[in-house]
Amino acid sequence: MRRITELAVIISLILGVSVLLVLAASILIPGVEVRQLAFFYLYTTINPWFQNYTVNSPEAVTAIVWDYRGLDTLFETSVFYLALIAGLALARGLFSETLQGSFNEKTSGLSTIVKTVTRVTAPMIIAVGASIGLHGHLTPGGGFQGGATIAVIPLVFIVVYSAFFLIARGVTSNKMLVLRSIGLLGIGFISIATFLIGLAIGRFAYVFQNMPKPGAIVGLPADINGALISGTLWFFNLFEMIAVAAGFTIAFIILLLAGRGGSGGR
């Protein structure tokens, strides 16, 4: 009887929230008129007849994130990086040779069937994550979404095999921090790439410039051999994907060891 009551309460809450969302949508959704700023973004996202302003990317969200408001995204990525550094600083001493040495892949974790399925699906997850990240300038997705998808792999291995499976295989927070740093440095370099090209050829260019702009004719190519890369956007997504995947892996390792480090930290 108690379970039935709990189930009824849960269903009531779900239905209630659904009704509220429907009512709120009917009241709060703005009119069909597009504001001038939004119209400009949509009009210039990919527009071959407006070369002085276009981003040459059909994905408006990625264009806004890495072109129109690229500095904001860079600072957000930097904050995530600093948060991970702080987490590593607080987690010093949690790595234990004793705990690492106690790991046995054959006896630890879930059943052989689950482990086998995990090994088979891991490359698929990487492929899906890479596709989401590297096609972020063409379709919904991007570097953050792709990196977060790839980060599912270490989390799954932790659950299926053992808490110290990653560490036993050499996937440590220090190595992931190197990858995270490479990702952030790559983002930083791409953000000033056009500016550096301008300095090299004696032309004016902006920081975070992608395509040529009025008064700044320097720009990265929109395509390579007919494959659309949207200038800096593909590279931003690549490095962001690396940084996010490594960053989440660091977070998983820190949280994992924080829960167990008291018995063997040094």
Helix/sheet category: mainly alpha
Instruction: Indicate how many domains the architecture comprises.
Output: 1
Sheet with the most strands: spatial strand order = 1-2
Largest sheet: 2 strands, antiparallel
Shape assignment: globular
- The radius of gyration is 23 Å
Report low-confidence residues grouped into runs of 5 or more.
262-266
Number of strands: 2
Feature tags:
266 residues; mainly alpha; two-stranded antiparallel sheet; 11 helices; 2 strands; 65% helix; disordered C terminus
Can you tell me about this structure?
- The protein has eleven helices and two strands.
- By secondary structure, it is mostly helical.
- It has one domain.
- It has a two-stranded antiparallel ribbon with strand order 1-2.
- α4 packs parallel to α11 and α6 runs antiparallel to α11 (232-260).
- The model is unreliable at 262-266 (pLDDT under 50).
Short synopsis of the structure:
The chain is mainly alpha-helical. It has helices at 2-28, 36-45, 60-68, 70-90, 97-101, 112-134, 143-150, 152-160, 165-168, 173-201, 232-260, and strands at residues 223-224, 227-228.
Write the layout of secondary structure elements.
Blueprint: H1 2-28, H2 36-45, H3 60-68, H4 70-90, H5 97-101, H6 112-134, H7 143-150, H8 152-160, H9 165-168, H10 173-201, E1 223-224, E2 227-228, H11 232-260
Antiparallel strand pairs: 1-2
Helix pairs in contact: 3-4, 4-10, 4-11, 6-7, 6-8, 6-11, 7-11, 10-11
